[in-house]
Amino acid sequence: MSKATFPKDFLWGGATAAYQCEGAWKEDGKGFAVTDLLTAGTREIPRIFTPEEKENTYYPAKQAIDHYHHYKEDIALFAEMGFKVYRMSISWVRIFPNGDDEIPNQKGLEFYHKIFQECKKYGIEPLVTISHHDVPLALALKQDGWLSRKTISAFVNYCETIFKEYKDEVKYWIVFNEINMMTSYFGDIYTGGILSNGTTHLDIAHASEEALSADKMKKRFKALHHQFVACAKVVEIGHKINEQFKIGSMVAADAHYPYSCNPVNVIAAQKSMRRIWYCADVMVRGEYSYVADSYLKDQGICLTDLDITVEDKAILQAGTIDFLALSYYTSGCHAVDEVHETTAGNFSLGVANPYLKKSDWGWVFDPQGLRWMLNELYGRYNIPLFIAENGLGAVDEISEDGKIHDPYRMQYLDNHVSAMREALEDGVNLMGYTWWGPIDLISASTGEMKKRYGFIYVDRDNEGNGSLKRIRKDSFYRYQEIIKTNGACVK
Ligand code: BGP
Question: Could you tell me the pTM of the whole model?
Answer without folding.
Answer: 0.96
